[in-house]
């Protein structure tokens, strides 16, 4: 299968790429950090023993006027995309009164608009797959009824908005055979978590969560469509 992963240069995205490489899936690694995704790509190819990983060095926040260019870049390596994992995200942890409009805009662009825009641009590739599946990674902070954390108001709201977008797109494309689901991970030990909560130790490592997301990305469409599912050891 051909799986495109955003935010593939570190954390869950990088671990997911390597998990998929073990089964020799074609993985398209998206990140604006070309050096880091090249390192992950090299590691994936070492693990698989074949050239299964390819780098797509671009910023998903800057696609408005470059849709043709991104499609051409993808076409170098694949004629279809079976799975998109919208894993990239941006967090600013600040009290509600202190966060700036610019920071809010950046989070909503990265966490909501960019993944939706990427799907729109890559629809021609998804339509060539027999059972395309888009998996949007949200957060337990954006899951209705879950415990909320101070300083993450707009981050949580942007992830909740991505979940609703997922539900809407599942309905809009239901007759085309493209499935859309969202996963809301709980705390996972990643660089992003460490930046937001210095000193906190999460119950799960990035590789453990990546293993579950790999299974869901490849099989979840057989059981779910338009769902926002918590993936957490704690009760929402």
Walk me through this protein's architecture:
By secondary structure, the chain is an alpha/beta fold. The chain has seven helices and nine strands; from the N terminus they run βαβαβαβαβαββαβαβ. The chain has two domains: about 50 residues, no CATH class; about 160 residues, NAD(P)-binding Rossmann-like Domain (Rossmann fold, 3-Layer(aba) Sandwich). It has a seven-stranded parallel beta sheet with strand order 3-2-1-4-5-6-9, with helices on both faces. The longest helix is centred in the middle third of the chain and has 26 residues. It starts with a strand and ends in a 5-residue tail after the last strand. The mean pLDDT is about 90.
Tell me briefly what this model is.
The protein is an alpha/beta fold and 236 residues long.
Widest sheet, order of strands: 3-2-1-4-5-6-9
Strand share of the residues? 15-25%
Order of helices and strands: EHEHEHEHEHEEHEHE
- Per CATH, the class of the largest domain reads Alpha Beta
- Rounded to the nearest angstrom, the distance between the terminal CA atoms is 33 Å
CATH architecture call of the largest domain: 3-Layer(aba) Sandwich
Number of DSSP strand runs: 9
User: Within the CATH hierarchy, at the fold level, what is the topology of the largest domain?
Assistant: Rossmann fold
Percent of residues in helices comes to 40-55%
How many H/I helices?
7
Give the averaged pLDDT, no decimals. Answer: 91
Estimate the global geometry from the Cα principal axes: globular
CATH homology-level superfamily of the largest domain = NAD(P)-binding Rossmann-like Domain
Largest sheet: 7 strands, parallel
Integer-rounded radius of gyration: 17 Å
Low-confidence stretches: none
Q: Strand pairing plus helix content: what structural class? A: alpha/beta
What is the count of structural domains?
A: 2
